[in-house]
Amino acid sequence: MTLALYLTRLVGARILAVLAGFLALALTFDIMENSTEVVDAQGLEGLALYALLRAPLMLLTVMPLGILTGALIAFLALAARSEMVVVRATGVNTIRVVLRLLPLALVLGGVQNQLAARVGPWAEQVLVERFPELFESRAIEDEVWLRSWQAIIRIGGGSADGTRLRDVSIFETDRGGELLRRIDAATARYTGEAWRLADVEVQRDGQPPQALDSMFWDTRLTPAGI
Hints:
alpha+beta; six-stranded antiparallel sheet; 6 strands
């Protein structure tokens, strides 16, 4: 058996074992959270279908961490059995060891790409169609606090699709967390490219409040995020 094949089998087996454990754990918590609604609506067969459709989405989430953890466990096992010492004694340095795992990395990258580009979106669409009771968007009725890029945001309420908000306060900060300005708006509406605030009051430290009919809000926050 060549060194490349041995390393690929060893590292690949550890990664698959870790991914299986992470997937089982994540799927168990997800099913525990949603099993009552699914069983009430569609019975045990519906629960089995739900788990099957959620599996690729969960795998896509845990895959990066699982790959790193599995590879770490594999190399720790090699070091514990002094196999890395033997490998280096043959003249193979660490970089050449990593290069021998390149085919495995390409396979794992291809699997993740297919999950993200094809399997995941398909599974998500089927989930929404088969289990609409789990994915109903509800209007924002209670006060919500969010953290965005260099800003803390308070939302008093909003529409179910997240494109229209009311009673919005934005606390913009610098990189060190110091408050730069506060923006209060009666409403915020997403235009498709940016947020437009209406009935706005802008406050800066040491300056009188500035009232504006409207202004655009520069943020990475999207309706989907809300």
